[in-house]
Amino acid sequence: MPPSNGTAPTLVNGVSHTDSSSAPAINGDGAHDSAPRPTKEDPPTLDQSWRHSAANKPMGKILQRLANQCLKDLRDTVTSMAETPIDGSVAPLTNGAVSHLVDKSEASVNKKLQFMKFANSQRDRFIKMLVLVDWSKREEEMARLVDLKVWQEKELNAHRDAMHSIGLTKRDMFAAKMPNPNIEGALEYLSTGSASRQPDLGYIPPKRLTAKQLLRTLQDMNVILITRLNLHEDLLPHFNNYDVANGRATFHVAGEFEVDLSVAEEDPASPFYFIDLRFLFTPRARTLPEGLRAQIEGRSNQALASTGLQGCYDFLHNFVLTHKLNTLRQQAIELLHGKWFDCLKIEDWRRVHRILVVQYWTGLAGKKSWIELGISTGRGKCAAINSPPTPTLTLKWHRSKDELVTDTTVEVDWSVLDFESIIQAVVAKHISWTLGQIRDQLTALAGTKTRLETKLCTSDSSPQACHLSLSLPGLPEPITVSQEPFTGQFVFAPPTLISMQAQQRLNSETNREPAYIAQMLAHVMANDARERMSRVARLLDWRQLQLVKQDQKTLVNHFGPGLLVVRAYQCHKAWSKPWALAFTFSLTGEKWWIMRLEDRSDAKGQVLGQAIASVRHISSVEPLANQLSFSQDLLLKVEHAAVAEVSYATIAKDLEAKAIPYKFRSIRVLTGGNTSPLERLATAIYVPALPLMHTSSRSKERSAKPVGPVRLTFDGFDVTSIEGSDTIDVKHEIRLQIGPAQFKHLQEYLAVKRTQLHDSSAKQNHDHASVHENDIVISDAGAMSLRSRVPFGEPFISRIQDHMKAIERMNFYLSTFSKHKIQCKTMTLSRVRFTYRATEVPLQAILLFSPDGRQPIKLRLEPTGNNPHQRIRALLEQRTNM
């Protein structure tokens, strides 16, 4: 009410209710006095958001769609009219005369009816469109009308929501209400033990049965049950195992449940009723919850009343199967939150009906794998039985996306539910299958001549026990391949830099095909051998050669198929340029080769580098490579064998150039000394007949016949350094058989020397006569042995021929000495020392021969200072060379 003094009331902020212009503006409202203020009579602001929504279409779009629809309907109508057959009874018109008769045939009437329906429907549409066009002329008024309608609907919805919310709140408050306490009734009941207001229903409780009566009743029920089950009931195969006791029949279904049933009447038509249910699988609850038990009892009694024992079994059987799946699902969830964290994926239970789908190895890239635990119809197992099929629990295993595994069965004990054992069995079989495929691919990749040894260990239940061991001769220890059970990632052991890089690359790629993994493992072994070989080679100062890259076909032609690693080395700086040592690795093992290199040029003639011209396998190293791992000792033996192979290759090429027949043979030689000799195989070149070329024919004792057979064997090499330049001298042993009359004077000379050595005990247990450093040895059996040196990689046959000519020369000089009673002091292939006058100071002469026998013989007289023949030394030297 306004104040009694008649003045206008003052508002809170000092604004007068009657005259706002004269009142003071306390909070600065004076700047906005001119702005209109909303009053109670102003209408509310309407929501006009619908005008800009996608549902508001322009009028032109509606007209366009209506026209298109009309044209489409017209075409359909005309097409339908054209397809309507014409009655043949109507006679055609002649001469173009028009008949005034009306065509009343059924086809004509149908066509007219179709066209009239089309016209009527289109007329209605366009009338509606006309109304909309008229409304569009008053667009703003119609829009305001729509605004009002939208506002009204929002208000109505708000009222409905408010009433609904109030009703829900009222209903939810029932549980929170507490009735008023009945204090008077409580006091009366506590003091007297009864309540006057408690109604008396007049119920007379039955008399309690005595023990005999109860026993007799149970026995009668047992008789009724036994009689009914044996005479009146057609028992299911699953209910054949039962027993009757205590007035109930207990049916046992192995691995699932046992149910207690009873009857209330003797009538065979009366239904059984449910008493109790117990599970026969683990894990299980000791007692069923009351709510669940009540539902099971109600559903079981309903099934017993409608379909008898068959319905009861079907209900309980399906319930138990579903309960088992629920139990397995709970176990899977526990594993997902525990040991298998982030390694499993469980499909949403609501998306699949009674199927447990669990994907394992979720972190792996590429194709996925999963298992499905579900309930099958059982039709396949019961096809030959007259009884209806029984649903069963089954496991389906999808390996690598869509591949349904049918050739391998996973044994599952459905009476002992353990999802961890199930997933471990599946993973173990998956790992075993993968490793088996890898082994097969490696075997196929290695071929039949491989020395690759594979050992596959599999298991049906333990993924940790599954692994594949790969070993090759020369590897320090086998390579073990396994898979981590939880993540599915591959693990290579022993861990090295190469194996770890390959393992990381394999686990990050999507390609996990066994063929690809086998190829990767082969490269792991090859690269590991290459690295170990390179480390030892650097210690020995071997230099790796960078050759011109050649295609795979060329390498296969040189080294054979399955090649994984090729490395070329120069073992010593003194090795001649065309020769190199090659190391190759494949699944057949490691091999060593000698290579002859050649310069490779481009089209412009510019030298690109060295390329492989030919190769020669060093077979003598393979037994050592199979027994020893990479070490300095092994590589030194390889270098020794490589020098021998280069020497043999040079000799063979020289023999072929001279058209001299030869062949290679394996011989057994003793090494290691006299105390503990070791027998080993060595390679020798046999020349059946070695021709000799002569430059002089002064002696008739010198025969032009070829000598042989000749055996050439490698006897090591020496490295010498002269003025900072290293050279390699290859030593060879030349053996041949000579006759008793051949080189007779030389044999006599060596026999005398052997006797002198034996008498003087210069060598103990020595049965050969020697000439300076054992250059020539002739045994009592007539076997001659020569030792010769030749620079690395140079031809040798001419040197042998020169040696044989030198031997003939030695024999010639010995025969001459024998005729003239001249004493020979020493004799070698390069010099002869003899005493031609025995005076107080013996006069001696020395003949020096060139290595190839093509240079003049040099004569040296001793003693140098007082030999009287020094004045004619040049003349004597000239006469010697005639």
Automatic annotation (TrEMBL):
Tagged with keyword Transit peptide: no
Keywords: Activator, Nucleus, Transcription, Transcription regulation
Cellular compartments annotated: Nucleus
Superkingdom of origin: Eukaryota
Keyword set includes Transcription: yes
Biased composition (Polar residues): 1-24
Region (Disordered), start-end ranges: 1-58
Free-text function comment from the UniProt entry: Component of the Mediator complex, a coactivator involved in the regulated transcription of nearly all RNA polymerase II-dependent genes. Mediator functions as a bridge to convey information from gene-specific regulatory proteins to the basal RNA polymerase II transcription machinery. Mediator is recruited to promoters by direct interactions with regulatory proteins and serves as a scaffold for the assembly of a functional preinitiation complex with RNA polymerase II and the general transcription factors.
Protein name: Mediator of RNA polymerase II transcription subunit 14
Species annotation: Dissoconium aciculare CBS 342.82
Organism classification: Eukaryota, Fungi, Dikarya, Ascomycota, Pezizomycotina
